[in-house]
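Study this:
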Amino acid sequence: MSDYLHQLRVDLSAAFRWAVRLNYHEGVANHFSVAINDSGTQFLINPNARHFSRIRASELLILDVNNQETMVQPNAPDPTAWGLHGAVHRHCSHARCVLHVHSIFSTVLACLKDPRLPAIDQNTAQFHNRVIIDKGFDGMAFEDEGERCAAMLGDANKKVIIMGNHGVMVIGSSVSDAFNRLFYFERSAETYIRALQTGLDLNFLSDEVAEKTARQWETYDGSADAHFSELKAILDSEESDYKD
């Protein structure tokens, strides 16, 4: 368990550092978490008010969804971190890793009257019929809003929530799985938004081709781990204190 926990700390810390490099961060807001026990009720998350660029593996908090004293302890997390991530880990054991950001293009998409992401290329097709659209934004992600969002994650095949008027939340079976999905979703949102900015007609893929491509992505084994391994290798040579 000690080695396993240490690896989770290192992986999650790497995700924070790369979120900065890719400009997914926002002030000292937003949170990443990863479950550390089988039921998912215990999880690592970033400490309150810490910039993503300064987070180290040893500093990540361990929270327990069954601990009623979480928000009165000296190192209490941000209330929105507890509200959103606590609810997801409480109710959705398949959501091993939960990444929530207000990254630019995903948030622009979330602010559109129609926030769906159509399949217009290979990357956007990855998310064909695999995204939850939330149009019920009801304020900041304190406990009530967190419970509402968690209730939408019943379909284990849908691992992205476009949080209308808010941002995006991505879940995965591991840190590498979730971060890879976040990377491709943000890139896909950027492709779509920039395509709209041309003012020209878009060439939408057929449902058949989009579904075929999405299934191919799902069987493209090892790509997420390979991607994340390379990201950590870059950090190891340029910013190795993330592992401390």
Summary: The mean pLDDT is 97. The longest helix spans residues 175-197.
